[in-house]
Model the fold of this input.
Amino acid sequence: MKIVVCVKQVPDTEAEKRLLPDTLTVDRESSNPVLNEMDEFAIEEALKLTEAHGGEVVVLTMGPDGADAAVRKALSMGAHSGILLSDPALAGSDAVATSYAIAQALGTTEYDLVILGSEASDARTSLVPAMLAERLGLPQLTFASKVEIDGTSITVNRLTDYGHDVVQAQLPAVVSVVEKINEPRYPSFKGIMAAKKKPVAALDVAAAGIDAALVGQAAAATTVVDAAQRPPRSAGVKVTDEGDGGVKLAEFLSAQKFI
Amino acid sequence: MSSKPVSPLDLFAIDGLLSDEERAMRDLVRSYGARELRPHIADWFEAGDLPAREVARGLGRLGVLGMHLHGYGCAGTSALTYGLACMELEAVDSGLRSLVSVQGSLAMFAIWRYGSEEHKQAWLPRMAAGEAIGCFGLTEPDFGSNPAGMRTTAKRDGDSWVLNGTKMWITNGSVADVAVVWAGTADGIRGFVVPTDTPGFSAPVIKKKLSLRASVTSELVLQDVRLPADAMLPQAAGLAGPLGCLDEARFGIVFGALGAARDCLEAAIAYALDREVFDRPLAGFQLTQQKLADMALELGKGMLLALHLGRLKDAGQLDPRQVSLGKLNNVREALDIARECRTILAANGITLEYPVLRHANNLESVLTYEGTSEIHSLVIGRALTGLSAFV
Ligand SMILES: Cc1cc2nc3c(=O)[nH]c(=O)nc-3n(C[C@H](O)[C@H](O)[C@H](O)COP(=O)(O)OP(=O)(O)OC[C@H]3O[C@@H](n4cnc5c(N)ncnc54)[C@H](O)[C@@H]3O)c2cc1C
Ligand SMILES: Cc1cc2nc3c(=O)[nH]c(=O)nc-3n(C[C@H](O)[C@H](O)[C@H](O)COP(=O)(O)OP(=O)(O)OC[C@H]3O[C@@H](n4cnc5c(N)ncnc54)[C@H](O)[C@@H]3O)c2cc1C
Done:
């Protein structure tokens, strides 16, 4: 079984994020780029599936040249090879364009299953997995908290507000996973050293068969017209207990619709 | 005027001196430490108990144990990377680094360097994985700085060796599966691979410690411990055997101590920025800044020394006397930094809510083991003058 895991490099989740005032895009220079945390769960699930059923894991990212580091991280966890889709024409792509670009890049390889995170921690649209499945014409099994494969059939628990749905499809398929699904392994020193020697294919728009007019910031279907800083946190409300503290607390909570 | 604070080692642009791979490995140990170890360390220290087996298994999975050795399941990294890993572990607690030093640099190294092929096959893969724990018994109740005087003996009896004696202050002793024990024989000091379930071997825990509480320290009692003839490490003859191991472990401490110092300094800076005295942040006072500047200088200088020694070691050019330079300087300065940071945290500094006094207490042991600061001064003095002042 061959599984492609799509991963995104994002600004460090711990660091304060800000937008560049002129382009209104994320300032990626001011904080360390890291592998999107949710994507570690996707990698872990792919590794577990191939450990159980055999096969290999290919990790795919679209991003600047430095996104190579996200691919290496996945390789050091145990993925077998990588694809880095990088081209100045792709900069500023929205979710629609991102899904198109990834779909085209997937055309350069064979696969039985595509696994993604359910959300990137920077833009947080959660749109890419569904759009990608649509573009590939494959079943989409999103927000999976459990994945099982039996022959060519795949069954997932799809997380919902009320619990989960059990969803089934035939491979090939597109899955996005939630954090509940597993506990990602740490890379190991041996893994880090082995990652250096694993093959990473570099693709530009031409090699991936991407029409440059359909990607990049200029092609985005929506534009960010304005952005404002989140207002600083206000001081809050102090309740002085004059024997009626409990009542006052309850009044406050009910006024805020907490109770 | 205020600007964004920069961390002490970033001010020295240390990261630029490391390769991508060295940084990746360091970051792995750092994030593992932050997520898996740091949340528990104050409790382990307070309880005076380390779940050593569990910790060893976790570190074994990363590949930390015996990481700079080659073959037999060891990761085979550079020595410098081993130093960086020690630094990240000791930033959490010197006790964790001690576990790793003893496992990798003392017990595993002794077997790897001096053992027979059978010794290596039997122990190294399990020790690298953290499935088996090792300890290293050199020090005795009456012989620390002068191990040549040791009283533990190994006598030939037909096809066997019979060991008798007592070892003291042995890290990992009570949790070990295998002990590398040094003993006097008819033909000088020799090393022995002793499975700890051998009859006559016992390892009572040393309690009531005020330092390295998150580390297991034990006595080793050897009472007519009978071992097969091939239990002796064939390639180690005389005191050079154990001293060769100690050089390995000291090298890790050169880096490790700085981890503790860095953690203290980071805690002190954060605290000083947050804490207001006389209506202003403590960090804005000149006396505080003088302390911080001096500490950052010593930390950065120590780091540059450590990296220099690391590069020398990887080039196969490190002289043991240079390890003495590093151990003496970096542990001494780390201890000073930890104590100075404690003054910045004042009363809060004496609690386990903050790491500073825990580190300072630990570093007292680090100053003593692997060659006391006095002994390293004598080594350096002898190098500089050609005169030995040991006796
Ligand atoms: C400041 C800002 C400005 C933006 N500007 C615009 C704009 O002008 N117009 C517009 O329409 N959109 C814009 N976006 C949206 C953003 O560019 C896209 O949403 C993004 O490219 C992909 O969506 P996502 O990050 O929300 O991924 P999600 O859908 O949340 O990600 C889910 C999963 O998809 C996979 N994935 C996502 N991205 C990649 C990738 N690059 N390579 C491989 N796998 C990937 C990962 O597995 C990830 O876990 C902007 C976002 C921000 C924060
Ligand atoms: C927590 C902990 C863990 C340890 N783990 C291990 C372990 O795993 N394995 C192991 O074998 N040992 C271990 N040790 C022992 C350690 O290596 C010894 O404590 C150390 O070598 C010093 O020996 P000592 O305590 O007997 O001091 P002594 O040798 O009695 O020294 C007392 C004082 O005299 C000074 N001194 C000694 N000789 C001279 C001299 N010639 N000139 C001037 N001053 C001198 C010393 O520097 C010291 O200040 C551990 C110790 C501690 C505290």
Observations:
- The mean pLDDT of chain B is 97.
